[in-house]
Design the sequence.
């Protein structure tokens, strides 16, 4: 079959039935391509975008399901851990002095210092420092004694039934007696902002 360009001359849309076979085939191929393209653009492309979006949502939902399944499967364990955490928190709150015990804390520190062989130069409360869930109560302390007495003092402070932390240690030589040293430090105790459990 020879291709003859002359057969495409004088083609009119009014009489497609009279067109040569090659022209009809070319028109049919063009229309098929156009219908396929328009069908994809108008019908399929939106569905493809929607499918990608739904696939992404499916992955997110599966991840959420796995997390919730893990929690549900271990719910008994999580509840037991929550009860244990609440008990630990309540126990720690009991270790914090309440407002009635704070003056007695100074007496305890004084007693611990004197039984350790220290002489107090200074023991005074500083302004409270309010934090997010607790109040910090600093106490400035200055004592005179031997190095070993300082060790006993710190050890006995750690053994108090209430939480007391020691900060900013400074040891210097005392005046006069060559064996005496001067210790300045800051002790801090804490009070819970909410209702303290007794």
Sequence:
């Amino acid at each position: 079959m020879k291709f003859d360009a002359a057969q495409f001359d004088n083609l009119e849309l009014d009489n497609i039935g009279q067109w040569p076979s090659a022209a009809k085939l070319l028109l049919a191929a063009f229309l098929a391509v156009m219908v396929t393209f328009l069908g994809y653009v108008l019908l399929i492309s939106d569905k493809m975008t929607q499918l990608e979006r739904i696939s992404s949502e499916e992955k997110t939902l599966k991840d959420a399901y796995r997390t919730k399944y893990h929690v549900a499967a271990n719910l008994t364990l999580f509840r037991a851990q929550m009860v244990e955490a609440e008990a630990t928190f309540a126990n720690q709150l009991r270790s914090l002095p309440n407002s009635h015990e704070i003056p007695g804390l100074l007496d305890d520190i004084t007693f611990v210092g004197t039984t350790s062989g220290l002489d107090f130069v200074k023991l005074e409360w500083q302004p409270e420092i309010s934090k997010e869930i607790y109040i910090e109560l600093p106490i400035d302390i200055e004592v005179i004694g031997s190095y070993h007495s300082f060790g006993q003092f710190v050890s006995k402070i750690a053994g108090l039934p209430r939480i007391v932390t020691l900060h900013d240690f400074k040891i210097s030589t005392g005046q006069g007696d060559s064996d005496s040293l001067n210790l300045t430090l800051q002790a801090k105790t804490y009070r819970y902002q909410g209702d303290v459990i007794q």
